């Protein structure tokens, strides 16, 4: 009976107006996704994202959602709606967290659904080999390791006064949830880096709360934009552009940075 109901739902989704393949071909979000992940995604067909490993995930569930629902149950299209602005920006607008709405399953399909599965694709990189030479484990999927190595090369060309911000990297891979939620952090997938905590600020620490629905009075950032620009150039978004700021945090989210 469950299968029958599911099939009817699938048929409705496939044949509902505005969800045809033609529409999706011109859907700007769909195009960004395909452009951002050429190693993992072959295309979008009949409202499903098709991965190279054969898995298909629903693209747009067509539901209107509150902010709490967007955090709890986003579809892949919801994840792409965020407007992440590159370059130097002002303090984020209230409750604007571009990139914090994430469909966990999307990342699990690409990087691994369990800690052990993710670890199978982790490789070691040598971070800032000339000035720090820290070894870090990151995913090789989507070339994340190569992109971080390129970031490292670019960072070492910066004036020496900027290097302490990115030396003593606090962490890359840890399978864990975001504190105060049951949602996985992108640290779980080996695609994320926390730079030097000593120069960083986190909304939960500064405002003494984990409640995402509450207004927070403070926004503090000490990370220079020269550093942010280098990460963005290679497909990483910065947690300093979130109302719920996390200025040590960079994660590989090319779908929010492609033109
Ligand atoms: Zn982080």
Provide an overview of this structure.
The chain has 259 residues and is an alpha+beta fold. It has two domains: 17-80, no CATH class; 104-256, Muramoyl-pentapeptide Carboxypeptidase, domain 2. The protein is built from ten helices and eight strands. It has helices spanning 2-15, 21-26, 28-36, 67-72, 76-80, 104-111, 115-119, 144-155, 203-207, 225-233; strands at 41-45, 48-51, 56-58, 122-127, 134-139, 192-194, 236-238, 249-252. The strands form three sheets. It has a three-stranded antiparallel β-sheet. Zinc ion (ZN) binds at residues 187, 192, 194, 246, 249. This is M15 family peptidase. Residues 180-252 form the Peptidase M15C domain. Pfam families: Peptidase_M15_4.
Topology:
Layout: H1 2-15, H2 21-26, H3 28-36, E1 41-45, E2 48-51, E3 56-58, H4 67-72, H5 76-80, H6 104-111, H7 115-119, E4 122-127, E5 134-139, H8 144-155, E6 192-194, H9 203-207, H10 225-233, E7 236-238, E8 249-252
Antiparallel strand pairs: 1-2, 2-3, 4-5, 6-8, 7-8
The chain binds zinc ion.
Residues 187, 192, 194, 246, 249 line the site of zinc ion.
Please outline what is shown here.
The protein is 31% helix and 13% strand.
Distance between the termini: 45 Å
The number of domains is 2
**What's the story with the biggest beta sheet?**
3 strands, antiparallel
Can you tell me the CATH topology of the largest domain?
Answer: Muramoyl-pentapeptide Carboxypeptidase, domain 2
Morphology call: globular
Give the bound compounds.
Answer: zinc ion
Category from helices, strands and their pairing: alpha+beta
Rg on CA atoms, Å: 19 Å
The topology string of helices and strands comes to HHHEEEHHHHEEHEHHEE
């Amino acid at each position: 009976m469950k299968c029958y109901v599911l099939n009817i739902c699938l048929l409705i989704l496939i044949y509902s107006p505005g969800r045809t393949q033609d529409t999706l071909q011109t859907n700007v979000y769909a195009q960004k996704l395909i452009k951002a992940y050429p190693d993992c995604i072959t295309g979008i067909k009949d409202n499903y994202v098709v991965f190279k490993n054969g898995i298909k995930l629903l693209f747009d569930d067509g539901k209107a959602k509150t902010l709490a629902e967007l955090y709890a149950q986003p579809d892949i299209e919801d994840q792409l709606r965020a407007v992440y602005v590159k370059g130097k920006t002002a303090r984020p607008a209230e409750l604007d967290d571009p990139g914090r709405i994430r469909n966990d399953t999307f990342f699990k399909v690409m990087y691994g659904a369990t800690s052990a599965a993710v670890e199978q694709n982790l490789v070691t990189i040598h971070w800032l080999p000339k000035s720090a030479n820290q070894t870090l484990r990151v995913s090789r999927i989507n070339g994340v390791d190569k992109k971080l190595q390129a970031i490292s090369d670019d960072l070492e060309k910066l004036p020496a006064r900027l290097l302490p911000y990115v030396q003593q990297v606090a962490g890359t891979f840890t399978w864990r949830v975001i504190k105060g939620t049951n949602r996985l952090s992108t640290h779980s997938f080996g695609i994320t880096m926390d730079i030097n905590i000593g120069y960083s600020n986190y909304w939960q620490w500064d405002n003494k709360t984990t409640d995402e629905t509450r207004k927070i009075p403070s926004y503090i950032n000490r990370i220079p934009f020269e550093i942010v620009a280098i990460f963005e150039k290679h497909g990483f978004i910065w947690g300093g552009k979130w109302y719920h700021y996390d200025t040590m945090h960079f994660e590989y989210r090319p779908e929010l940075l492609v033109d």
